[in-house]
Design a protein that fits this description.
The protein starts with a strand and ends with a strand. The strands form 4 sheets. It has a 5-stranded mixed beta sheet with strand order 6-13-12-8-9, with no helix packed on it. It has 145 residues and is mostly beta strands.
Amino acid sequence: MLYAAGLCSPPSSRCCPEDAGEYRLVARSVLGEASTFGTLLVNFEVEEQEAVFSSLFPPTWVKEGQELRLSCSFSGPLSPSQTPPAWFRDGVELCPSGRVEVQSCGASSLLSVRAVRKEHEGVYTLRLIGRHGAREHSAYVYVQG
């Protein structure tokens, strides 16, 4: 215990759950002895771990008319503070349609584009947004005519 300005305090202000409990403080002097009891409660929150990219899609070549499939996996399921993964081509978000399909579940996301045409060529990006900002991975997709 540290004693300063008439107050006793523990040597560290960092507590862990194992420190919780009942404590007894005894003060002795030439005049006698005094003791008191106190209960230490520790509120402990584990910082939520946000998912990060664990496998990335590379630059890809696909022939016109074929299906493009890009996939990425994460270090674990997305945390509650993370938004669902979003796919982009040249900075424009891709929305599911008759040609575009996005499947995101658990610790992975898959983008499928059916019957690829030359205008589908460009930089494809997968974005995860969480409490600590955005994480992105991008790669170029080449369409051969």
